[in-house]
Predict the structure.
Amino acid sequence: MRNVYLDNAATTQIRQSVVEKMNEALCTHYGNPSSSHNMGRLANNGIQSTRKTIAQYLNAKPSEIIFTSGGTEGDNMVLRCAIRDLGVATLITSKIEHHAVLHTAQELEKELGVRVQYVNLNAYGEPDLEHLEELLSSGEEKKLVSLMHVNNEIGNITDVNTIAKCCDVHNALFHSDAVQSVGHFPWDVQQTKVTYLTAAAHKFHGPKGIGFIYVRKGYELKPLIIGGAQENGQRGGTEAHHNIIGLENAMIGAYENLEEERAHITGLKQYFINALRQAIPNVEFNGRSGDFEKSTYTLVNVRFPFNAQKGLMLLFHLNLKGIACSKGSACQSGNTMGSHVLNEILDETERHKPSLRFSFSKYNTPADIDYTVQILAEFANS
């Protein structure tokens, strides 16, 4: 039996160069970065080097980069601290955000009394920018918009440039969850003027447990985690030096090889779509995931023409055949309620058909695609 990993939107295989850099950090530069002795300073130098590297790729200042444990903490920190400390009275988001945003918004509505408004979506799951303009124009209170750049389930690319300009006109803060974007798309925060941006290393062949937020100068946050003066006083706790070193190497690898790897992965996605359409003619693609202009090249969300009963066995069958993919996002793979994203954009008939997310990386091959399509075709005809 082959083992085929097509769940890269959940997490990616770590680059070997990242492992080597992390191992060196663990074994050699293991001092506490806050210590004043040489071992501590060596560790701190590595952290500051990573901060500069990230800033360079984002066209930001090193002081605007704050390390976190990943995307979930970053989203929580931005939303909670901006509402708690910066006078935000209205939070505008969508109903297909990652639960790190969506559930946090719901909790903050109960805890802090912030008004949460949801921008309308079209049938593909794209935000209605005219409705966003209406929401921003209504009332004089301070507003925070939180809309992701690349949707983690259906791959839609949101027009963050237009949203950032709209927020700027209305003096609103703009946060973008860019966890599925950073490392796969270039970012320039001077061109796309987000206030806050969230990223996680394990989405671009780095280690789990490390990420960062970009915090535009002048919009600094009081800490969510209190207990030390680390991260310019915005996040307490000893930095995970080895993970930060891994993040730097993963980011360098992602952007130095971006064009080559993007071409390879785009080819795999196209090959998969063509082969699947030939093998199972009535398949559909959720959101914009079948559109190469309007969705990320890294994933496709497929809706199969099977009834609900047959669909119950699909993911189980693929797993038995050694194929790893997702029903919705990995964060809710154990949730029997199904994908909140698909429930929001599909009608009653279509949402009862089985949908799976297949996501690709530099480590996948056409042979992986051939095997996967073969197993899907056999299941469809069984």
